[in-house]
């Protein structure tokens, strides 16, 4: 009887167990990351302050001394070494000749009064006409107004120098980028080879290019142009290849059926259809070139960047704001002109024009005659050759901004200083101490475990190689200082990205309001972001971190917004119909489903923040950026500065690979690993 009862109860117990929700087991990734965190905290508690590999600012390692000796050897053997005689020096001379052609035409010639060959009036007229020809009348008027305003600021020559170097760099970028982009677009093998190189080039912060190029090509415009080309050419190659590859298959098949050769198909089909994408690549390359040319002032590139660097070094906020305003205006002009050119390249753009092609050609011809008259006046009349000094109100801007900055620092110091010190002492200093005072071997172990949890053995090997390189370079402690600032800034960037990105993804109206502002923010060079916060918070690492947050936030917000907006409307309707509140929809549906977009936003935010935090060395950020700048200023620290640049490279690769692995779908990675094992 009892056995019968037991048998009868068994199914009841089984069904009761079946009704219970299965207990969720922690994934292997979470367990490994948790173990790494516990190991780090316990190790810090018991071992902090030991084996930190701290190197004082004035001390050098044997590697740094060897690099100094190499620098001295290059300087003493430059004239006799065949590599320099027949490769580097002729190449530098060729770049210099092109740069000098544009600078003497638009900025200042090398003879007489050092006036531009076509004068300020001719420069304004010619550049406005070019903007009208490639874009439209509005961007032509914008160009004229902006370059006239540069003269009113007392910065016409400096702005013209910057424009000439950007023009030189973009010209070389076109000569290199479009052919390589075409090859990558038509050849999968070329694309496979060139894509990792482009990834590597775009990871590197801008500072990294300067020291080795100054060593090889000396300081000056040539080195600035070469560094700018290296930085600006990747987006042009990528977008050109993308435009070539994305030709519709049926269009390509129709062309092939007519018996066209590969070269004919390229000229008559692929390049014309990819024209708009290529022009977009030119836009991106131009904006990158402007950003790099301003930073290249550290290796004696003339122009607005030098004005900003000198102002930042002397804490002259007024001069920095005046020059920064010119950089912003120049960025807006270049962006609007290239954007207008991109729209003119769109299919069917001719049908949308308000005036006929014939009328446009007549206007171009008439305006060209006016421009030639302006050029002739500039070559014969002094007032048209040199911008009139009595129209210069730049000193008024400088004094007004300087007075406003002093007033802000005096009257808002209670807030700004308190805010700065609270965040610095409450968050930044403890986190930096956690990184810099943890024994290096313990931190290496923790990072390797985290890398293995996120990406397996392959990522762990890459991580180990990067960490070993940083240790070998002798700058572990400075790298941890830079890493602390980067991670704190990135955390704030992600908070802003989630808040504003979710708002944009959920509301078209919010997106329409914010996206133009974010697009404008992404056009500004990195230097510009330092200027206003220097006036508010002074020359501290906090200023660099805030500037880094503002610099990186637009890209993180836009990626997050796109990820939220891409979620299927069906899923959203199901969540709302089940009674979920807006907060539940955001936290339980949208953010989890946009996980990959959030990880990508963190990846891009990290790269942007790292670039800005390094530039922030000019306003007291410290870390690796300080070592790089010191290497430019003092020849005895050149080796340490070059090593710091390399350390930034490895730190950037490390952060990029880890965040990319975090962005990857873990289920997909497990499946791919199993399939490769079979």
Describe this entry's structure for a reader.
The protein has 678 residues and is mainly alpha-helical. It is 81% helix and 0% strand. The protein has helices at residues 2-19, 28-47, 62-77, 82-106, 119-134, 137-152, 156-186, 188-203, 207-217, 221-245, 249-257, 262-273, 275-295, 304-313, 317-344, 357-380, 382-385, 394-411, 413-436, 440-472, 476-506, 508-523, 526-537, 541-565, 569-577, 582-593, 595-615, 623-633, 638-663, 666-677. Helix 9 packs across helix 10 (221-245). The longest helix has 33 residues, at 440-472. The chain is globular and about 80 Å long. Residues 1-21 and 666-678 have low confidence and may be disordered.
Oligomer: single chain
Dominant shape: globular
Contiguous low-pLDDT stretches (5 residues minimum) are 1-21, 666-678
The helix-strand sequence is: HHHHHHHHHHHHHHHHHHHHHHHHHHHHHH
Tell me the helix content.
over 70%
By DSSP (H or I, 4+ residues per run), the number of helices equals: 30
Largest beta-sheet characterization: none
| Rounded radius of gyration (Å) | 29 Å
Integer average pLDDT: 84
- The percent range for strand residues is under 5%
Query: Number of DSSP strands?
Result: 0
Distance between the termini: 54 Å
Q: Structural class of the secondary elements?
A: mainly alpha
Task: Give the topology.
Elements lengths: L1 H18 L8 H20 L14 H16 L4 H25 L12 H16 L2 H16 L3 H31 L1 H16 L3 H11 L3 H25 L3 H9 L4 H12 L1 H21 L8 H10 L3 H28 L12 H24 L1 H4 L8 H18 L1 H24 L3 H33 L3 H31 L1 H16 L2 H12 L3 H25 L3 H9 L4 H12 L1 H21 L7 H11 L4 H26 L2 H12 L1
Helix pairs in contact: 2-20, 3-29, 4-7, 4-10, 5-6, 5-16, 6-7, 6-15, 7-8, 7-10, 7-13, 8-10, 9-10, 9-29, 10-13, 13-15, 14-15, 15-18, 15-23, 19-21, 20-29, 21-22, 21-24, 21-27, 21-28, 22-24, 23-24, 24-27, 25-26, 27-29, 28-29
């Amino acid at each position: 009887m009892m056995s019968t009862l037991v048998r009868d109860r068994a199914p009841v117990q089984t069904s009761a167990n079946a009704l219970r929700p299965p207990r969720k087991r922690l994934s292997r990734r979470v367990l490994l990351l948790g173990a790494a965190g516990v190991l780090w905290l316990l190790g810090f508690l018991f071992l902090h302050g030991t084996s930190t590999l701290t190197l004082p600012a004035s001390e050098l390692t044997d590697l740094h001394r060897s690099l100094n000796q190499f620098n001295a050897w290059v300087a003493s053997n430059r004239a006799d070494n065949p590599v320099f005689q027949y490769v580097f020096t002729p190449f530098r001379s060729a770049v210099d000749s092109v740069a000098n052609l544009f600078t003497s035409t638009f900025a200042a010639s090398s003879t007489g009064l050092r006036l531009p060959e076509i004068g300020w009036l001719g420069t304004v007229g010619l550049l406005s006409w070019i903007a009208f020809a490639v874009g439209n009348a509005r961007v032509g008027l914008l160009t004229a107004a902006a370059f006239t305003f540069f003269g009113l600021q007392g910065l016409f020559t400096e702005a013209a120098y910057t424009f000439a170097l950007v023009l030189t760099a973009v010209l070389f970028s076109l000569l290199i980028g479009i052919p390589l982009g075409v090859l990558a677009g038509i050849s999968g093998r070329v694309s496979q080879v060139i894509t990792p190189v482009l990834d590597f080039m775009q990871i590197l912060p801008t500072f990294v290019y300067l020291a080795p190029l100054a060593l090889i090509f000396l300081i000056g415009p040539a080195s600035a142009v070469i560094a700018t080309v290296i930085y600006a050419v990747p987006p042009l190659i990528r977008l050109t290849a993308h435009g070539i590859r994305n030709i519709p298959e049926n269009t390509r098949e129709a062309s092939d059926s007519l018996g066209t050769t590969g070269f004919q198909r390229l000229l008559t089909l692929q390049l014309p259809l990819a024209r708009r994408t290529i022009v977009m690549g030119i836009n991106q390359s131009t904006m990158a070139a402007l950003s790099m040319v301003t930073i290249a002032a550290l290796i004696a590139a003339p122009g607005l960047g030098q004005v900003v660097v000198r102002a930042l070094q002397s804490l002259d906020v007024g001069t920095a704001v005046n020059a920064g305003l010119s950089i912003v205006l120049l960025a807006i002009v270049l962006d609007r002109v290239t954007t207008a050119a991109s729209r003119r390249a769109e299919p069917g753009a001719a049908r949308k024009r308000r005036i006929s092609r014939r009328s446009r050609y007549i206007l171009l011809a008439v305006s060209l005659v006016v421009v030639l008259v302006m050029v002739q006046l500039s070559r014969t009349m002094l007032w048209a050759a040199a911008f009139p000094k009595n129209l210069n109100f730049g000193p008024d801007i400088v004094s007004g901004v300087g007075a406003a900055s002093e007033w802000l620092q005096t009257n808002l110091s209670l807030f700004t200083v308190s805010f700065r010190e609270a965040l610095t002492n409450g968050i930044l200093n403890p986190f930096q101490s956690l990184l810099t005072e943890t024994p290096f071997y313990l931190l290496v172990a923790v990072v390797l475990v985290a890398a293995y949890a996120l990406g397996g053995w392959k990522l762990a090997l890459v991580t180990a190689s990067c960490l070993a390189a940083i240790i070998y370079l002798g700058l572990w402690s400075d790298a941890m200082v830079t890493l602390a600032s980067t991670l704190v800034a990135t955390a704030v960037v992600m908070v802003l990205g989630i808040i504003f990105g979710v708002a944009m993804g959920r509301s078209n109206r919010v997106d329409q309001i914010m996206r133009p502002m974010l697009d404008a923010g992404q056009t500004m060079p990195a230097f510009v972001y330092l200027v206003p916060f220097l006036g508010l918070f002074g020359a501290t690492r906090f200023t660099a971190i805030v500037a880094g947050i503002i610099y990186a936030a637009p890209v993180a917000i836009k990626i997050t917004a796109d990820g939220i907006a891409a979620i299927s409307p069906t899923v959203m309707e199901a969540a709302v119909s089940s009674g979920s509140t807006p907060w539940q929809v955001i936290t339980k549906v949208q953010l989890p489903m946009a996980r990959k977009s959030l990880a990508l936003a963190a990846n891009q935010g990290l790269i942007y923040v790292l670039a800005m935090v390094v530039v922030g060395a000019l306003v007291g950020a410290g870390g690796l950026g300080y070592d790089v700048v010191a290497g430019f200023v003092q020849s005895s620290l050149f080796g340490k500065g070059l090593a710091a640049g390399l350390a930034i490279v490895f730190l950037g690769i490390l952060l990029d690979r880890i965040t990319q692995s975090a962005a990857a779908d873990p289920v997909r990675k497990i499946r791919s690993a199993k399939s490769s094992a079979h």
